[in-house]
Amino acid sequence: MAIPSNLVKIVDLDKHVGKEIVIAGWIWQIRKQGKLIFIEMFDGSTYKTLQLTVKKNVLESPDFSDVAGLYRGASLFAKGELKEDKRAKYGFELLVKTIEILHPSAEEFDQLVPPDAGADTKLSKRHIVIRGPRTSSILRLRAKVLQYSREFFNSRGAVEVTPPTIVEAQAEGGAELFEIQYFNRKAYLTQSSQLYLETAIFSLRDVFCILPSYRAEKSRTRRHLTEYTHVEGEYAFMDFEGLLDYLEDYIIYVLKKVKENDKELLDLFGRNLEIPTKPFPRVTYKEALEILKEKGIEIEYGEDISDAPERTLVEHFGVPIILCHFPTKMKPFYHKINEKNPEVTNSADFIFPGLGEIIGSGERETDIESMLERMKSMDPPLNPDDYYWYMDLRKYGSVPHSGFGLGLERFVQWILGLDHIREATLYPRMLNRISP
Ligand code: ATP
Ligand code: MG
Fold it and tell me: Which CATH number does 7-112 carry?
């Protein structure tokens, strides 16, 4: 089947008004009225559809009845004259002369994902769900967030690297690791590329990566996947305050770009993005416990602030906050101990209203003795030999440095106000879900 050389995309329609054009796509909606057929055509170039008007006395081929027999999902080329029409959903109408049916779609298309389908059906049929305006818009916005992120990091001179995601040892360890068989030995899927990024600052100074991280999350929440896209950065000669400043700039850069360039996508989701202003409120872990206590939520010093209290805390401020200086005993060995108060680390989570943590970050420890001691005291203890290459960073010319990890899907979820993180990725991986 020959592809017409002059295909026009729906996103470019305004340049072709009054001309005869050919467009390629799928039937999103079809309505038959006697000698008239209205087709809403979707072509994937935008969330917008184009109204095709098929009149029996204008259509040259195929037979009117062949078009009338089509169902949603059918793929076709449609040729005709493009007109502006205020009554059409997006202001354009194609008066169709010829249609070339590429592949029909079966009648049951509509039943695959009925409007009242439950979450599980929607996930099993996600390859169908991604067709069409809503989900394609989420995926498009996600791509924009990736693009703006890279723009920001590149503009600040950071170099993109791609560390391996199959690893031998993991700093956080624990129950969230996926173990795999690697030939005749054990290996793991990475939870974070941080340690490798730290090695790379000695080569490239400022580095970032955008790669999958894996967490065997057994809890079911609205913001956990087992595989997610981790945006991470590490920066040489950057202290804690420098890091928070950099991350505020990053968040503001991306949100401003989205607001400037992708307003239509935001409107589709009814989002009026409020751009936070610098500095974001800084709330120490200790202060957070006090605020929560006033609200009747008791958390023991040293305990995690879990999902729900985290949201209560950020609701108190109504804007993204930086929850910082977690107790030393709560945090892995690589978090820098605060110089003035060794009880706490120079660590910070960025907490967003309605969602919770989107960034985990901190200044990295450079004192090898303190690191060794903390590795030993972990449960189970970490063997420094497994991290010989990481310890070498501290032996041979360490420098003050800081870094962060952001969950791309959580960021997209927050920007669009999505109820569940599973909508912010092409094919979510969760406790009971690995297909499609
Ligand atoms: P949480 O407490 O929400 O599980 P975490 O403390 O385990 O988060 P980090 O280890 O600091 O998270 O990872 C850095 C970032 O990666 C988080 O701020 C979050 O945006 C993202 N992230 C972590 N776990 C997941 C997950 N299971 N699914 C999606 N994103 C995640
Ligand atoms: Mg976690």
Answer: 2.40.50.140
